[in-house]
What does this fold into?
Amino acid sequence: MASRQLNRIKLIPNHKYKRSGPKSYVYLLNKYGFNPTMEGPYHFGNKVHQQGKHGLNKLVGGRASVQKTLQKTTPSGEAGEVTAEDEQNDSEYLCPVTIGTPGQTFNLDFDTGSADLWIFSTELPKSTITAAGNNHTIYNSKDSSTYKATKGASWKISYGDGSSASGTVGTDNVTIGGLTIKNQTIELAKTLSAQFASGVGDGLLGLAFSSINTVTPGPAHTPVENMISQDDISSSEELFTANLGSWRDASDPDAGQSFYTFGYIDQAPLKAAGVTEPYYTPVDSSQGFWMFNSTSASVNGQSIARNNNTAIADTGTTLALVDDATCKAIYAAIPGSTYDSTQQGYVFPSNVTADQLPVVTFAVGDQQFAVQKEDLAFADAGNGNVYGGIQSRGDMTFDILGDTFLKSIYAIFDLGNTRFGAVQRSEPTQNLAPPQDS
It folds into this structure.
């Protein structure tokens, strides 16, 4: 391995991100396609899709197919469309990545719950590029001397509401945190539905396993997999780490810093926690996710058995989604909490103090890790309430531990050893100020 300077990649706060509990929940319904088990306006239903010749405001002939789509119950009780206004891409943090020669810097959403690296490109319709204005960096393959098109390859991401992103495929040099990955597969957006185009970032960099990459005819290797195959990082540390801070922690010793590292474990979080090694548990990558056993939780020291339960660590998700019984136990311990069916989530009074909030822990393998009390409140819910950071996972069979949980730990994604590591972060103060928009 050549000598390289490995650096922290400092995350950029997405200042245009506006916290909304229901919009973040709808995003997760779309991303994972689970059926809600708690009452609310959003649900999956069947929609007839007609293919044929266009007639006057209708399609004539051809084949009809029934598709499962995310729908919203209107005030009149009818099933309506889910639009871009109902959701938002869950990008609270963005990371700078350099692509091409000469390099252009793109602010991307680092997402351990997906495995595509796609970016805004000049292949998009002029109307989409014009609407993007100066809000996005647009990749032009003609401007990069190291770009190579991949003939016959394409990609497409589809969500439950029918929204999608798709385009062409090529390779180029990609630099992340001081490491340049040569001939990394990149996916150039050619079409973006409104739900994707409205995002603030310039695209997404997936950090899950390549088995769920959407490039056809075959999945593409992720940047971390290519770092390993190209010997860009040491064989003893074929991993990346995530330290997700918060504006709430500005007065704490780490000042709420947010960063990723590739190819090494930053020692500062371990030193702050008073440990020399992270706690590790094996990962089951068969579904493409960073999935591990999480067979128990606790609320104020009362253990909750969750036999055979698993969880995934997803940096592309702001909320934490767990089973209904665990949700009920958590909110039963918060004074004044209630389930708000209009917002499809649990809420509780914004004037609840830190000593009134429960200590909530989730198992990572055989060890419990606590959620910071300040992160139990996610967003303003109106009427003096806040939307909880932990919500129902519906009929999914595994938990999604997003930023609400991940902010409480230093997370190590060890690809070389197929394991997940965690270090409990120490936050001496709990800032319960009303949630900000970013």
About this structure: Residues 48-66 have pLDDT under 50 and may be disordered. The chain is about 10% helix and 40% strand. Helices lie at 21-32, 126-132, 194-197, 223-229, 267-273, 324-332, 403-406.
